[in-house]
Design a protein that fits this description.
This protein is of the alpha/beta class. It has 26 helices and 17 strands. About 4% of the residues have low confidence.
Length: 644
């Protein structure tokens, strides 16, 4: 398609050369460009379509990159990437060695902050804004007068306002001297429809544009008459907020209650209107909120009509709106489907079982239970810490909560796990989805830390399934256990095919692993789904007539470790290889090494996993190959063991 406008925009400076009346055409081209690009190279479609007019208006009004735009969450920012010199590379978005899936300062000076997780924009932007104040004050007067002051904008949306960190940032914003602008991009969605009081509250917010105009004029007049200075500003705001509430017959909202100027709500798809409003309020002193209403998936009917599916739809046909299914569909179910179906099965038999998810019912397949037992599933919004402590409260009162959180997001609830769950030894079942390498979402989303950060927590019990049947059995066993239980499993499809490789079909037992293969030279210990790849690698070496005789144990449990197996291995083998789909430091391999040392065994222990690094984005196949954790890489490591 021939793009008349965006093909000539290589930076926001080019955008500013256009007339305001031309901006709707720019938005239309951006929308079509993103739809076409994502139909072939999948990504986050709905969120970016909903933020196009806002993005154009922000770059038109503000002087980026001198002015800072802090996005939250980053999958709203595709139009931002295209307008800031990355148009010709956008086809590499989320691909190995291509553009980052989210904003990343290492990629562009226009990206002020990393935005892979939600709710951090207000806190980060406030820090940048206050740091700017110190920087300006440190400059000589002539330099200050010769430079344009820097504006900082936090763009928060797509459900991120439900996160507790956002409210912590708001509270701090109301107390510190700053000029932060917060744009609340309100589309009433995260991935699934948002629920809860704050969502309805945002829907109900209203204000008068006429009132805001006259209020600002009155404030300017008061300043000129020296009736208001910075010390009196907070009192002025409080009086005017009360006046506004009286005149509009509306109560003060959460922002005005914190003495943060509130503008809106306004149409987030009226780019000319947004330019006008942003131009008017950008230089207002003090913190302020612009509340805009947008529609996720705006401008593409299939995405508007099914916003959950089209959050990240995969490949699709633009004309028909038909999603293109992977031709290599196997009979094995997705790990998340195994979880969802098993949870429903358990919940039907035990009325005390409840499900908790932070805005991911469809992503984790808790939607399966939600459809049949909606009163026993709680979607708490993007609030992982609350999800864990809420689960602790349920457990304290005798319920059996299964709290499902993606591994990368569980990091946000660490203190809640330690203080609210484990310290009281409460029976909360943490179902940790997307553990290990997750693929194209990259460093912010890989679940590589959970084994290492959960292992030191007293009372915590940790297991990881290798097969779908293992996961079913672990979920069933967790119901009968006491204290906190963590079950971690990966993204994608289960691999039942490995069961033919000398697997003993035994039920999962507490704290017990299973021997998959006998051997004489080396003992391999694995935990979780990487055991399938290890089994394939061992079989491959056997087919290559390798003389190395390898024993393979699927340990299943990180905590407690199967000491019977470890004694057997420690007595028999001089070389042990451990493998895990996580960080080596402090993880499963470290646990084995520590145990051997504590019990007087001195084998050589070789740990396979992820070294001290953040792993970039790319397909899981590419990333496992890079990390030498695919079949080829593991074979290479095992042959090196043989050579030594």
């Amino acid at each position: 398609m021939d793009y008349q406008y965006i093909n000539k925009i290589d930076s926001p400076a080019d955008l500013k050369k256009l007339k305001v009346s031309e901006l709707p055409a720019v938005c239309a081209e951006l929308r079509q460009f993103i739809i076409e690009a994502l139909s072939k190279n999948p990504g986050h479609l709905g969120s970016s379509l909903g933020a196009i007019e806002l993005t154009v208006a922000l770059h038109y009004v503000f002087d980026t990159p001198n002015d800072k735009l802090v996005w939250d969450v980053g999958h709203q920012a595709y139009a931002h990437k295209i307008l800031t010199g990355r148009r010709d590379r956008f086809h590499t978005n989320r691909q190995f060695k291509g553009l980052s899936p989210f904003t990343n300062p290492n990629e562009s000076e226009y990206d002020a902050f990393i935005a892979g997780h939600a709710s951090n924009s207000i806190s980060a932007a406030l820090g940048i804004d206050i740091a700017e104040k110190f920087r300006v004050e440190s400059l000589e007067l002539r330099e200050v007068e010769s430079r344009k002051s820097r504006s900082v904008v936090a763009i928060i949306g797509d459900g991120a306002m439900t996160g507790g960190l956002a409210f912590e940032g708001l509270n701090n914003t109301s107390m510190d001297k700053n000029n932060l602008l917060i744009v609340l991009n309100d589309n009433h969605m995260a991935i699934d429809p948002l629920k809860g009081g704050i969502t309805q509250y945002l829907v109900d917010l209203t204000t008068s544009s006429t009132y805001n105009k006259w209020r600002w004029r009155l404030y300017q007049l008061a300043e000129k008459m020296h009736l208001v200075d910075e010390r009196k500003r907070q009192a002025w705001l409080r009086r005017n907020n009360n006046l506004k509430a009286m005149l509009s017959k509306q109560p003060n909202n959460i922002f005005t209650g914190l003495n943060i100027r509130y503008f809106g709500p306004t149409d987030g798809h009226d780019v000319e209107g947004l330019v006008r409003i942003l131009s008017e309020i950008k230089n207002h002193r003090g913190p302020k909120v612009l509340h805009i209403i947008t529609k996720k998936g705006k401008g593409y009917a299939p995405a508007e009509n099914d916003q959950t599916v089209w959050h990240a739809p995969g490949e699709f046909n633009v004309a028909s709106g038909e999603r293109i299914q992977n031709s290599d569909v196997r009979i094995q179910p997705l790990w998340q489907e195994v979880f969802g179906e098993t949870l429903l099965e358990l919940a039907k038999k035990n009325e005390k079982i409840v499900g908790i998810t932070p805005a991911m019912p469809s992503g984790c397949s808790m939607s399966i239970m939600q459809k049949e037992l909606p009163e026993r599933v709680f979607d708490v919004g993007i609030a992982e810490g609350h999800a864990v402590t809420f689960s602790a409260g349920l457990a304290k009162a005798g319920m059996v909560p299964y709290c499902n959180i993606y591994s990368t997001f569980l990091q946000r609830a660490y203190d809640n796990i330690v203080h609210d769950v484990a310290l009281q030894n409460l029976h909360v079942v943490l179902c940790i989805d997307r553990a290990g390498i997750v693929g194209n979402d990259g460093a912010t989303h890989h679940g590589l830390l959970d084994l290492a950060y959960l292992r030191p927590i007293p009372n915590m019990q940790i297991c990881a399934p290798r097969t779908a049947e293992d996961l079913r059995e672990m979920l069933r066993l967790a119901e009968t256990m006491e204290g906190p239980v963590a079950i971690r499993y990966p993204r994608g499809r289960t691999n039942g095919e490995v069961q033919r490789n000398n697997v003993q079909c035994t039920k999962v037992q507490y704290g017990k692993g299973v021997k998959l293969r006998d051997g004489e030279d080396v003992a391999v210990l694995t935990i979780g789904s990487i055991g399938n790849t290890m089994a394939e690698a061992i079989e491959e070496l056997k087919n290559q007539n390798s003389k190395l005789k390898i024993a393979h144990y699927d340990m299943r449990w990180l905590k407690p470790l199967d000491e019977e197996i470890l004694h057997e291995v420690g007595k028999k083998y001089k070389t042990i290889v451990t493998a895990e789909d996580g960080m080596i430091a402090g993880g499963f391999g470290s646990a084995v090494l520590e145990w051997m040392s504590d019990h007087g065994y001195t084998p050589r222990v070789i740990r396979l996993g992820v070294n001290d690094q953040y792993v970039e984005h790319g397909s899981t196949k590419e990333l496992y190959h890079m990390l030498k954790l695919d079949k080829e890489g593991i074979c290479e490591s095992l042959l090196q063991v043989q050579a030594k």
